[in-house]
Hints:
two-stranded antiparallel ribbon; binds flavin mononucleotide; alpha/beta
Amino acid sequence: MIFASVADFRARAKRRLPKFAFDYMDGGAGHEAGLRRNVEAFDRIELKPRMLVNVEKRDLSTTLFGRTWNAPFGTAPIGLGNLVWPRAEESIARACIAANLPYSLSTPASTTLEEIAAIAPGNAWFQLYVGRAEEMVTDLVTRAERAGYDVMLVTVDVPIAPLRHRDIKNRFSVPFRVTPRLLYELATHPQWSLATLAAGRPRFANMERYATVTRYQTVTQYMSSQVTGRFDWDDLKRLRDCWPRKLVVKGLLAADDAVRARGLGCDGVVVSNHGGRQLSSLPASIDALPEIRAAVGPKFSLLLDSGVRSGEHIVKALAAGADFVLIGRAMMYAVAALGAAGPKAAIDLLTDEASRCLAQIGIVDIPTLKAAAPIIRGESR
Ligand SMILES: Cc1cc2nc3c(=O)[nH]c(=O)nc-3n(C[C@H](O)[C@H](O)[C@H](O)COP(=O)(O)O)c2cc1C
C-alpha cells in the first residue's frame, strides 16, 4: 500500500487493529462534532502565496525552550500508546531522537518515564496528570526531575473523565474484559494480537506502583478514582513552585486562562481541546489560537494540537500564531499501520509536506513564516 497521506495511515490502521483499540485511538467525546471540527477548521484556512521567491533551500528548524529542533513539531502525549501497537512509545521516542524532535511521554503511558528518559535523553518531555493522591503527584514530579526531564506538560483539560460513546459501546477497559466479541476481534486481527501477546499486555507502567489493586479494584478503576475535578489554579501555582524546569500548561482554549498561566510563571501553553476527546462542543484549537496569541503577546511560547493531519496544517498553525505543534493521532495511525517503521514514516511525510507547503507560498524558513503570517481568510469563525 502506498501512504500518500495521514488518511492512508488511518485506513490501514483501521484494518489492522481490533475495533476496541482503533476506536480508543480514533474516537472523540460525545457525538464527535468537536473531533470533526478540529480538522475542518484547519481545512477552512487559506494561505496567501507569494511567487518569484527563490525557495530552493528551505529550513524548518525551530528554537523552543532553549533548543533548536529540526522541525516545528513533536509528538503529543498519548496514554496507553502500546495498546495501539506494541512498543509504540519506544519506537516513537527513538524516531524522535533520530529526527531531533521532542517526544512527550504521558503519565498513563505503558512505558516508564525512566525507560523513556534513557532512550531519548534531552528529547523527552513528561506530561503530568494531577490526580487526587498528592503523594503520587509529588513522587511523579520527583521521578521526572531525577530522570532528567527538562520540560513538563501539565494537562489541565481533564477535570473529569469524558463520555466517549465508542469506548462505552465497546465496554473498553484495561485489563480487557474477556467477552465473545473481544475474542472475535482478537482472532480476526492476528497481527496485532500476536504482537501484543509477544510484547506483553499494555500496562499503566508509570502509575501501577501507586495503585491499590485488589480483587475488587483494577488499576483502571484506581486511575478513574484519581480524576476528581479537584485540580485548580492554587494547585498549578504549587506545581510551578516545586518544578524547577520548564512548565507548560496543556489544554487551554480561553485567552484569560493563558494570560493567568503566564502570570504564574509558566513557560508556555498548549492550545488544545485534547483532540476532541473531552467534550464535543469545544472550539477547534486553531480557531481559539489567534485571540490567545493576541492576549499573551508575541514572546510567550504557544504550542498547538488537535486536528493536525498534514504538514500544511502545521504551516497554518504557525501562520496563525503558534510556535510549535504537537502531533497526536497522525503519529498513532502511522504506528498502527506500519509498526516500528511508522514513526519515521509519519515524521518524513509531515516534514516533506510542510517543506513543500512553504515553497508553494514563497517562504524559506520558520521565522519568515511567523513574521509574514500569510493567512488570507478562514482564521476567524
Ligand atoms: C489515544 C489518545 C490518548 C491520549 N492520551 C493523552 C494523555 O494521556 N495525556 C494528555 O495530555 N493527552 C492525551 N491525549 C491528547 C493528545 O495529547 C493530543 O492533545 C491530541 O491527540 C491532539 O489531537 P489530534 O489527535 O487530533 O492530533 C490523547 C489522545 C489520544 C488520541
